[in-house]
Amino acid sequence: MARREVGEINAGSMADIAFLLLIFFLVTTTMEVDAGIGRQLPLKLDQPINDEQIDINERNVLEIMANSNDDLLVEGKFIEIDELYDIVMDFYTVNKVAKDQDVNMPNYSKVDVSTCATEISKYKEALVKDPENKVLKSELGKWETKMVLCQSLDEKSYMEMNKQAVIQLKNQAGTSYGLYIEIQNILKQVVNELRVKACEDLDFPDYFELREDREEDQEYIAKLRVLVPERIIEAKINR
Amino acid sequence: MSKFKKGGKKGIPGVNTSALPDIIFMLLFFFMVATTMKEVELQVTLEKPVANQAIPIEDKDNVDFIYIGFPIDAEEGTEPRIQLDDRLAPDYTVVSLWKEQKAREGKTPFDIVTSLKVDENVGMRIVSNVKEELRDIDAIKINYSADQTK
């Protein structure tokens, strides 16, 4: 039986086909990356917290207001956008090392293992009476993280920013989104820088490499959230 | 006698093109990998704000996009509008319904990030309304889309 020769495939038009595909992808390509600032909105509570009116010390609130003319008011004073960074940075750090260096900014207090232990037992007790209370549960979780944090540190304690310390963002209907993002960007920048520094001080992995969906990173993230809290309240614009 | 031939016919040798497909394929693969297809046809203006702290979105499959801007089509008026997928929404109240329809297998609205792509000249009222709608259905993970550099 004669052997059949396998005919060679003519590859001459391969280049043409490749060109065709290439041109298709060239045309459809958009190189832009989707980037953005991630935020989590506050959860809607089933029942409002009906505790007695909580007394909020004014020093713990940093009020940032942007009006319809895109003027920026911080604590009632007109400022330029590039002054905001220093103010927010001060809000976080001015009283951390020296107590009451600026009495208009939130104070720091020491949290150690024993404070955590008392708080944890307090919330556990309360949860026995009211096992479904979301607020109590989240508080308990927070204190448990703080406990872990304290135990992991050399000095077994850390300086905690006042629990009520909060940044309040107020916008008006005509405030431009561009200004809003500029403000959000500055708030993020301050928190990022402080957390990066905390990571370096505590020998954590690189802050920007931490991922919330990775289990081994979750503990680091929880600790960083305690050390550098990011509490932003946004006032709703009336519908 | 010289070793070198002189006066021989000097034809220009043809360029070897057998490597051309390889080069083209290399380019092709580069563009295939780098390509992100346009998700929607934009019907609103979208001048994104700049934020140097913006971080690239990694898991793009688990992100829904809401576009807010001024309508390009003059017949739609001059007020800022919300674009959901390929259509302009009549108003913000449909956002929560739309978001719930976008639910993926085994995921709640809570798990899926909503990226707000908003024109920087739009007022905050419409953005605030959309955010409230998302909060109502516990879709609280949001992302303010911004360019990292100008």
Give a written overview of the molecule.
The complex is a heterodimer of chains A (239) and B (150). Chain A has 239 residues and is α/β, with parallel strands linked by helices. Chain A has helices at 14-28, 84-97, 113-129, 134-152, 177-201, 215-227, and strands spanning 35-40, 61-66, 72-74, 77-79, 108-112, 157-161, 166-171, 232-234. In chain A, helix 2 packs parallel to helix 5 (177-201). The mean pLDDT of chain A is 83. Chain B is elongated and about 90 Å long. Chain B is of the alpha/beta class and 150 residues long. Chain B has a domain at 60-144: Nucleotidyltransferase, domain 5 (2-Layer Sandwich). Helices cover 23% and strands 17% of the residues of chain B. The model of chain B has no long low-confidence stretch (mean pLDDT 84). Chains A and B meet through helix 1, strand 1 and helix 5 of A and helix 1, strand 1, strand 5, helix 3 and strand 6 of B.
SSE layout and pairings?
The complex is a heterodimer of chains A (239) and B (150).
Chain A: H1 14-28, E1 35-40, E2 61-66, E3 72-74, E4 77-79, H2 84-97, E5 108-112, H3 113-129, H4 134-152, E6 157-161, E7 166-171, H5 177-201, H6 215-227, E8 232-234
Parallel strand pairs in A: 2-7, 7-8
Antiparallel strand pairs in A: 2-3, 3-4, 5-6
Helix pairs in contact in A: 2-5, 3-4, 4-6
Chain B: H1 20-34, E1 55-56, E2 63-69, E3 81-84, E4 87-88, H2 95-101, E5 113-118, H3 124-136, E6 141-145
Parallel strand pairs in B: 2-5, 5-6
Antiparallel strand pairs in B: 2-3, 3-4
